[in-house]
Specification:
2 copies of one chain form a homodimer. By secondary structure, chain A is an alpha+beta fold. Chain A has helices at residues 17-27, 33-49, 98-112, 129-137, and strands at residues 7-10, 56-62, 65-74, 81-89, 117-123, 141-151, 154-162. Helices cover 32% and strands 35% of the residues of chain A.
C-alpha cells in the first residue's frame, strides 16, 4: 500500500501540466515572468511535438498532484550528453528532499536511455548559492565558469555528472 | 571604384541564401549532411521569422556572390553575450584571409549592437585544430574544455572574445 504522502514519478506529459509547471516555477519566487513563460512553453512544445520536441519531463507527484518536475533532453549534435534544463520543487514542498530524489530519478532515466553525462548550468550570483550547493551535494562537479556570461558580474557556472 | 574581386559585406538575408549557405557549408567537406541541413534551416528560420528568429547573418561577397558567411545572435537569457553559431568560407576561397575579415566584421556588428562578448565553441578533435588556431589567432581566449561533451573522446572547447 502506498502512503498517501509518498512520492511517485510520472514521465507522461498531460495538457494540465503546462499550468501546473507555471505554478510550480512561479511559487519559488526565484524566476522572472519571462523565465516562467519559457518553462511553460517547453511543456507546450512537448505536448505539440511529442518526443520530437527534444524535451523530456519527469513529474514528482504526491497524492496525484505534481509537486516538482524536471525537464531535460539530449543535447543536439552530441551523443549521450544530456542537458538538465529545469528542476524545480514547489515552494510549499521544499526542504523535504524532493529535489534530490527527483534529480536521482531523472539521472536514472537518462542513464537508461544511454546517456553518458548530465550537464547543468546556473548563475554564479549569491542568490544561486543554494542551487550550486545542491548540485555539488548531488555528485556534480564544477566543470567551467564562464565569466560575465549572463551579464556583467553574472557568471555562468557549469556542472557535470558522468553516468558511466 | 571597387575592384571586381574586392570583398563586400551584406547583412540582409535573401531567399537564395538558403541554397548558397548549403553550398558553402558542403564545399568544405567538413560537415555531416545533418549539420549542413541545420545550417540551411537557420537561414530558412530567419527568412520566415525575421529578426524574431534570433539569427543574424553576415555574408562576405565577391562580385555579388557570397563566398562565406557568419551566423550569430544574442544568447537567450543573457544581456550582451553573443554566440557565433557558424562561420564558414567556401572551399574555393580558403587561404585568402576571408574568414578573419568576416570574423572581425561580425564582431564589429555585435559591438555596435551593444554586445559585450562573443562566445564560440568547437570540437577538441585533431581535425578541428585549424579551427581552434583560427580563434586563438583572432584574439579569442580558451575559456573552458567540456570533456567528452560531443561524444566519448570528443571534447567541446569554448572560446570567448570580450568586446568591452
Amino acid at each position: 500500500m502506498t502512503r498517501p504522502d509518498a512520492l511517485t514519478f510520472r514521465e507522461e506529459v498531460r495538457p494540465g501540466d503546462a499550468a501546473r509547471v507555471g505554478e510550480i516555477v512561479s511559487s519559488t519566487g526565484f524566476f522572472h515572468d519571462h523565465e516562467v513563460a519559457v518553462a511553460v512553453e517547453l511543456v507546450e512544445e512537448r505536448l505539440r511535438d511529442g518526443m520530437g520536441s527534444g524535451y523530456l519531463f519527469l513529474f514528482a507527484e504526491r497524492d496525484g498532484l505534481a509537486v516538482g518536475y524536471s525537464c531535460y533532453g539530449e543535447i543536439a549534435c552530441t551523443r549521450g550528453s544530456y542537458d538538465l534544463y529545469w528542476i524545480v520543487v514547489h515552494q510549499d514542498c521544499r526542504g523535504q528532499g524532493i529535489g534530490g530524489r527527483l534529480l536521482r530519478a531523472t539521472e536514472e532515466r537518462i542513464a537508461a536511455a544511454g546517456g553518458r553525462a548530465v550537464w547543468v548550468e546556473t548563475s554564479g550570483r549569491p542568490q544561486y548559492r543554494p542551487t550550486r550547493e545542491f548540485y555539488l551535494r548531488s555528485g556534480y562537479a564544477q566543470e567551467a565558469v564562464m565569466r560575465d556570461f549572463y551579464d556583467a558580474g553574472d557568471d555562468k557556472v557549469l556542472y557535470v555528472k558522468r553516468l558511466r
